[in-house]
Amino acid sequence: MMSTDRAGAILVTGATGFIGSHTCVDLLAAGHRVVGVDNFLNSSPRALDRLRKVADRDLDFVRLDVRDRDALDEVFRRWKIDGVVHFAARKAVGESVEMPLEYYDTNVNATLGLVRVMAEHDVRRLVFSSSCSIYGTVDRVPITEDTPARPTNPYSRTKWMCEQILADVCAQDPAWHAISLRYFNPVGAHPSGLLGEDPRGVPNNVMPYLAQVAVGRRAELAIFGDDYPTPDGTGVRDYIHVVDLAEGHRLALDHLDDQPGHRVVNLGTGTGTSVRELLDAFSAACGRTLPHRVVPRRPGDVAALVADPTLAREALGWTARHDIARMCRDAWEFQRLNPAGYDDEEGA
Ligand SMILES: NC(=O)c1ccc[n+]([C@@H]2O[C@H](COP(=O)([O-])OP(=O)(O)OC[C@H]3O[C@@H](n4cnc5c(N)ncnc54)[C@H](O)[C@@H]3O)[C@@H](O)[C@H]2O)c1
To answer: What residues does the NAD-dependent epimerase/dehydratase domain cover (predicted)?
Structure first.
């Protein structure tokens, strides 16, 4: 892997979360120095031990709330930071409808504060976690980056607002370089089975739900609707392996300086998989047909969301490498080895 020739470290916010932890591993393997921050709102301190173990290299870590500007300022005083990957956010669509202020505070206010502190310390290189959910209901797939954003819930609006803030900041000051990565559906786990997705409470997404059915923590998968205009009637999504996604962040950092300003880039495979196909792939991975039942559609769900990943290939040299069988295999391995998630274990 390419190593950095910059002297400073990469600040990763949300470092112990699902995508953040895998990205820290990738950055450390590529020779970057990493400073991680997280307040463990939706992650376990054990993820930190695991990521150190998997990377076999150390990172510096500070427990802080990204809304706390003084604490962020202290990080920039203590370490020389070259660039920032900003993952820390609340991410559940349904919850965002229930508690919009928390979402605007954590996702938008914290990003404003971070950008301000970065500028005060003369750091103007940022990779931001955005989401394909900002596209809302689309007229056609695959989805290119110039598809108009039509966010349909507070969570997606926070991501869209952050993108616009970054675009305005970059337009005003050409010293800024920012890339918003619009992820499609991140799934899978590190192949070691040591790092993975460990949602708190009932999983919002189908893959961790399936994994919990497979390990016996949930009775069956509810398939929300089989009357969509898709080949088998179930919803189609573009699942992307978290290891591929992590690599996308490193490449985005490598290519930040290629052009000034704010850019948006989809990270997806370009291949759609239906819920039934996913169920079959996961059943093959865990060796038994998983119980499931078709229930009515969920309000707000759309038939198909699939990325056009051309820009990621052209601008970042990035292409997803893992297929759906591999995503299921790795997700299952993590769940099998950690039946109750990270907090399952006796010690770190
Ligand atoms: N997983 C997905 O399906 C998906 C899809 C598109 C975009 N995203 C975005 O990617 C990013 C990472 O997602 P993830 O799946 O790894 O989620 P995650 O919840 O596993 O990780 C987010 C991390 O941020 C931390 N965090 C939350 N609020 C914080 C605060 N105020 N201060 C410090 N830390 C805080 C959490 O403790 C957690 O460790 C998020 O911005 C999310 O919106 C995720």
So the answer is: 10-268
